[in-house]
Amino acid sequence: MPHIFVVTELKTMKTIILLVLFTFTFNTATAALSSSEKQALIDLYHATNGDDWTASWDLTTPVENWKGVTIINNTVVALQLTNNNLNGELPTSIGNLVNLKVLNLHNNTLKGNLPTSLGNLGKLKQLNVSLNTFQGNIPEEISKIDSLEYLYIYANDFTGSLPTKLSELPHLKRIRMYATNMQMDTTNTLAILY
C-alpha cells in the first residue's frame, strides 16, 4: 500500500511541475514585445547610424535594456533619444510603434522629410524633433493624432506652413516652431500656440 501512495504522489507532483512550466513558458511567450515594434526600433537604429550613437544599443540584448526605450505592458510607450548623435533619416516603420506616447529626438542630426507614417501614432502626446535638419512640409497625417498635446519642430529646415487641421486637435497645448523656414498664418488659431 505505501508504494501505491508514493507513485500516485509522484504522478501528481509531475503534473503540477509540468503545469507550472507550461504556464511560465506561455506567459514568457506572450509577454514579449511585438515583432513589428522591435523591428521598427532596429530599423531606426540602422537608418540613423546606431553604431555611432553616443549611447548605442546592443541589439543582442533584450529591448528593455536599450537606452531611451520605455516599455510598459509589452509595448514601447516612449522613445527618448535626445542628444544621442542620431544621423540619417527616420524609417517609415517608425509608424509601427503605435503605442508611443512620447517620441523625443531633440538635438540630433536627423534629416530628410518626416515620414507620413507618424500619423499612425494615435496615442502620441509629445512629438519633439527640434534641433535637427529635417526638411520639407510637416505631413498632414500628424493632424490625425487626436491625443497630441505638444509639438516641437523648431530649429529645422521645414518649409511651407503647418497643416490647418492641427488647430482642430482637441488636446493640443503647445507648438514650438521658431527658427524654421515655415510661414505662419496669423489668422490661424495655432498662432496662439506659437
Strand content: 15-25%
Order of helices and strands: HHEEEEEEEEEE
Mean of all residue-level pLDDT scores: 85
* Secondary-structure content class: alpha/beta
Instruction: Figure out the total of helices.
Output: 2
Tally of strands: 10
Strand order of the largest sheet: 1-2-4-6-8-10
CATH class of the largest domain: Alpha Beta
CATH architecture of the largest domain: Alpha-Beta Horseshoe
Based on CA inertia axes, which overall geometry fits? globular
Kindly give the count of domains: 2
Low-confidence parts: 18-30
Main beta-sheet strand count, sense and barrel state: 6 strands, mixed
How far the N terminus sits from the C terminus, by CA atoms, comes to 86 Å
Q: Helical percent range?
A: 10-25%
Query: Which radius of gyration do the C-alpha atoms yield?
Result: 23 Å
Question: How is this structure best described in words?
Answer:
- The structure is a single chain.
- With 194 residues, this protein is α/β, with parallel strands linked by helices.
- The chain folds into two domains: 31 residues; 160 residues, Leucine-rich repeat, LRR (right-handed beta-alpha superhelix), CATH 3.80.10.10.
- Helix content is 22%, strand content 18%.
- The protein has a six-stranded mixed β-sheet with strand order 1-2-4-6-8-10, with no helix packed on it. Strands 3-5-7-9 form a four-stranded parallel β-sheet, with no helix packed on it.
- Strand 1 and strand 2 form a beta hairpin.
- The chain is globular.
- It starts with a helix and ends in an 18-residue tail after the last strand.
- The relative contact order is 0.10.
